[in-house]
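## tool: complex_structure
## caller: assistant
## args:
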Amino acid sequence: MNSEFLQALIEAVVLTARSPVTPEAVSMATDREIGEREIEEAIAALAASWEEAERGVRLEKAAGGWRCVTPAQFDHYLRTFHGIASRQKLSQAALEVLAIVAHRQPVTLPEINFIRGANSAAVARTLLDRKLIRLAGRKKVVGKPFLYRTTKEFLLHFGLEKAEDLPDPEDLVEAEVIADA
Amino acid sequence: MNSEFLQALIEAVVLTARSPVTPEAVSMATDREIGEREIEEAIAALAASWEEAERGVRLEKAAGGWRCVTPAQFDHYLRTFHGIASRQKLSQAALEVLAIVAHRQPVTLPEINFIRGANSAAVARTLLDRKLIRLAGRKKVVGKPFLYRTTKEFLLHFGLEKAEDLPDPEDLVEAEVIADA
Amino acid sequence: MKNGAISGRVAAGSLHGFRAGPVILLGVEVNPDLADFIPLGPSVELPFFCGPLDLLLHLIRKNEVSIYDIPILSICDQYHEHVRTMQELDLEVAGEFLWMAAWLLQLKSKMLLPRTETEEGDPREELVERLLAYRRVKELASILHDKDLVRQCIWPAGIIADLDDEDVELDWEEVDLRLLAETYLYVMQRFAAAHPPPIQVIPLRYSVQDKMREIYQRITEDDLVPLTRHLNRRANPEEVVVLIVATLELVRLGAARAEQRLPFAEIYLRRGRRTLDEASFEPPEREDADEF
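## result:
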């Protein structure tokens, strides 16, 4: 294994690792073909070369190993980028509220809160903003809470004509029914 | 912003992004200071320079954006490092169903069954579980069968920008017929 | 020459691209480690076909005949021979293989009949069309297979930005009906786990002692009690359970004998060697009774 290949290997390892990488673990990945000392040196050389050039990542020693971090000067841009990216995303909480509204509509916020065991007001607002759920009158009980239903946009996304076309969740998760349908 | 800084910024963005990065999103992260075209060019230049040198990662265009992946030659070491014994290969039946969905999407299970001449419900379920296909509404025919489409995960796994990039099987077979004649 | 190059690759047997890999017996995928231990009688190894069209294409290729002019008579016989072998090997033959067998038989009989003027077209036409469509699928599947092998060796790289909040986020594009349904079921299961139904205390309606007394009296009076017939009159499972326990208890005490001549025959209860007095039917005193 030449030193270029080793450096590339280390790069692949540190960029796919989820926690700090120790020279020992890399050595074991090469079946001990390369010793820990040699790997430690290669990592240090790699860290130094990344430090010199203008790079989007650097290697830092932390918690007994090495890990990749982004230099601080990119923070502003990264924050903006991830903010934009998250606009096309749905949190698990939002998906849960949407699933409850879809399968139990019309349903009130207190009912959603009760089922989820968590306050869902902020999530419901996000879903309202994204036009995935809508207000559909008030329930005639004490406090007259608003009722929620799914929207046209919701149906469009799931390729449905009307909310009644939503399949029974139990059935959908069973293979046989997918086959029969 | 000089070009070195831009390349480093792009590196930081693609290495922290969880899904393919579009030049548009990077441009928005710079408050449109840098145009999409310039960013596309910078990404392409970065991808080319990583390709040339022996590097542990490369940039590839897939599912409408750019993402960072490791070259195949490191697979053995990475699997040892991450402790993953082997991966499940897709069965012939699964590949056939995938081929039909990729080529004819949106398509229903009865249609898939007819083309394959075999029941494909169990296979479709496995592919749903592996997130290679997804449900995309119902067909407006008797019984309202579910429609299937390929996913972003499918594009990423096969390294495609879009499903249409797969070769048209018509062309392949026509070529063979011409050769037969 | 572009076409020629492609056809060369196709003709070079990319349709067989799947055949390598684990030992595959017809219709059953066998773990290579276990293959040696599976008793199969004479060693018969058949290629794996993932459907009747797959098998038909194989036969056409093996016989080196044109897909547009299939010799139905001989292909039909070979197909049936193959399905018979599958059945002899005790492999589960999926219905679709039998359905194709029936179709081929029908085509065979049509081919044997003299063609009439009124009849239009070739009876094989539909089969040819389906085979062609399926061959295209196999071709594309073969390309995906090769890609799958290479792509499996690729790892997504990425580091976690410190500024990210760790909330799991889903790509809205990837949210489909199934994920929505799964999420709903997950939420409802979590709800059910957090709100277990209140435990209902149902008083016992039948006591073993009462039943012991009842059976004992019947044995004493009739001397012969058919147990199953006696049980069958009771629809309530709770009562049936108590009756069986009571019967076993009587047999244990020697106050009754149970006889069965043949397996599954009626069980008869007779008087036992011991005579019981009324006190024997009182519930036994429990030492810890005070604690409750």
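## assistant note: Chain C touches chain B through 59 residues (CB under 8 Å). Strands of chain C lie at 24-25, 28-29, 169-171, 224-226, 256-259, 268-271. Handing back to user.
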